Automatic annotation (TrEMBL):
Residues 360-397 are annotated as: Disordered. It holds the Pfam family Acyl_transf_3. It comes from Isoptericola chiayiensis. This is Acyltransferase. Residues 4-340 form the Acyltransferase domain. One of its GO terms (molecular function) is acyltransferase activity. The chain crosses the membrane at residues 47-65, 86-103, 130-152, 159-177, 189-207, 219-237, 257-273, 285-302, 322-343. It comes from the Bacteria. The keyword Zinc does not apply. Keywords: Acyltransferase, Membrane, Transferase, Transmembrane, Transmembrane helix.
Amino acid sequence: MHLLDVLRFGSAAAVVVYHFTATPSASRYWDADVTVLFEGISHLTRYGWLAVEMFFVMSGFAILWSSQGRSVAQFAGSRAGRLYPAFWACIVVTAVLQAFWAGGRHLTFGETLANLTMAPALLGAELSQVVYWTLLVELKFYVLVGVAMLFGPLTRARVLGLAVGWPAVALLVRGFGYPDLAEHLVVRHAVYLSIGMVLFLLWQDLSARRESSDDGGRLGTATVATTLGVLLAWGSYQVMEAAGRATALQGVDVDPGVSVVVFLATVGAVWLATRPWAGFRSPTLGAVCVLAGGLTYPLYLVHTQFGWAVTEWLTVRGVGTWTTFAAAVLVSVLLAAVIHYAVERPLGTRLRRAVTARLDRSRAGRPAPAPATVSSHPAAHPSLATAGPPLLDPQLR
């Protein structure tokens, strides 16, 4: 799925451009109103926040696939190995940056330690970088999937129930007057992760290549498709609400209708990227796509503070706008590459194995749970239960 790697990097790039050219925070480091400074592209970059919703959709797809054929311990190990090494490195280098840069966020030593948990907000600490709020959303999603796996295989019915029930419960909790609890249930973002999970089920159905006479298969696929339609409508409504918040934040008009079109287009792009033809036979092109996917996560983690620091440093020295912008992007990408190769790749596998082994030892003597494979119809291709992790390793897992 080379194009899925391209989409992931493209989403990260959209977030980078959005933070550098469309947010009020960026105006402070440019020493100018970014809506005026980047007037020529503002009508596009103001919608960059929707790339986060796209990340959540891709995460719902990839994490459900990543759970295939794994025990809870293996799933937890894969999540820890995938997320924490690069994240810890980013926390450390950000702390070093803030020791020399007067701008940005200045945390106490205790707040920096709290950030290492990936859930500093739960400990009353400020985020080291603004984008880290999404990581807690992801972490809650992983915990939810892991808990579901504890109760047995992730059957189609259970996945559909989770995809609809989770955001519904969050909305009900908020409606009954418990907004803080609703936020813990990720009320504003759960539906996007659910869309990704249902996309995985639909992909699994179509990948099975059932016989046309398989009425049960067609019926099951119709149920999944109907659920996806409901979730897309639900997500579109939430995007319209979010467009109002984006307008207030940026100080420019963020059109709800355009936001919905962009959102639906990104979901469609994710789906097209999972099709059988969505890849390259050329080893060179494939390697470039894999590299782009590998840089996505560290680029997302480091770009705000370091990009803004470069922006401020060059702006006060009179460097041109576009040269400064290019330098901020380049520094962010290069730092992401260093973290990917020096930290993420060598330490990710070690941490995954260590966490898995530790959890397995803690369950010694207990009956081992069945691997959490998403069940499809009886006619489903038998390799689907084990095809996920190898194909997604190392980028999407």
